Amino acid sequence: MGDKVSVITPTYNSSKYIRETIISVQAQTYTDWEMIIVDDCSTDDTCKIIDEFQDGDSRIKLFHQNRNSGAGAARTRALHESKGRYIAYLDADDIWLARKLEKQISFMTEKHCGFSCTSYEVINNEGERLNKEIHMLPESDYVGFLTHNLLQTVGIMADVSIVDKKYLEMPNIRRRQDAATWLQVLKAGYKCYGVDEVLAQYRRTNSSLSSNKLMAARGVWTLYRDIEKLSLPFSCYCFARYAFLAVWKRTYTKKEKR
């Protein structure tokens, strides 16, 4: 367990959830980590809460953006500040289960892979489970992710001794910058291997992008056409698959596991 994990966490007015998020990192059975939190000009008590944790745990490091630039820019800033072999992503309202890092690193070591994503469950504003688990496929490539859209930031980990760190720099866009980044990695020829165990909790808040179906759909279409420059016919095909799986995702993943 000698290889450090750099946990990348962007924050913006996250005072309601950031305490629980940090505690979930401190509870990890894998202890060789640094948590790099980049605040995107919060106006609430987010930084005050983080400072309290930082004072008692030197592994927690807080950085401040000069201007509000979005989660993608904050994650890229954290990437540049990182010192670890492994890069893991945890947004300021999400939670890891205690053995997440331990099990994911063991999986990646056994598979000799540089890019992976754990399965996860969905919780609501109050942290209540919604009885919805999303299980990863055994592996995903570029076309596969375009058509099944399963990867979630809370479960992503990259080994930068294998994956070139430049592919983890997020594009300067406000929406879907995380998905665009995973596509960068996949397009470069690295497959994402799925950990078929729920090791994280993704919080679906009222204000989250995924909670607004129309906005989410627009973001996906923009990703296909404006970011990935897909042809109109292939964009339509991918979007049809996205729309179908958005409704039937749980059933689909169960079928794929058989």
Largest sheet: 10 strands, mixed
Radius of gyration: 17 Å
Helical amount: 25-40%
Number of helices: 8
Helix/sheet category: alpha/beta
**Record field, number of beta strands:** 10
N-to-C order of helices and strands? EHEHEHEEHEEEHEHEHH
| Shape summary | globular
- Mean pLDDT figure: 89
Contiguous runs where pLDDT drops below 50 for at least 5 residues:
250-258
- Could you tell me the strand content as a percent range? 15-25%
Straight-line distance between termini: 33 Å
Question: What report would you give on this structure?
Answer:
This protein has 258 residues and is α/β, with parallel strands linked by helices. Strands 1, 2, 3, 4, 5, 6, 7, 8, 9 and 10 form a ten-stranded mixed beta sheet that branches. Strand 6 and strand 7 form a beta hairpin. The longest helix is centred in the C-terminal third of the chain and has 26 residues. The radius of gyration is 17 Å and the shape is globular. 39% of the residues are buried.
Could you list some keywords that capture this structure?
about 20% strand; globular; about 260 residues; single chain; ten-stranded mixed sheet; 10 strands; alpha/beta; about 40% helix; 8 helices
Strand and helix map with partners:
Elements: E1 5-11, H1 18-26, E2 33-39, H2 46-56, E3 60-64, H3 71-81, E4 86-89, E5 95-96, H4 100-111, E6 115-123, E7 129-134, E8 139-140, H5 142-148, E9 156-159, H6 177-187, E10 192-203, H7 213-227, H8 232-257
Parallel strand pairs: 1-2, 1-4, 2-3, 6-10
Antiparallel strand pairs: 4-9, 5-10, 6-7, 6-9, 8-10
Helix pairs in contact: 7-8
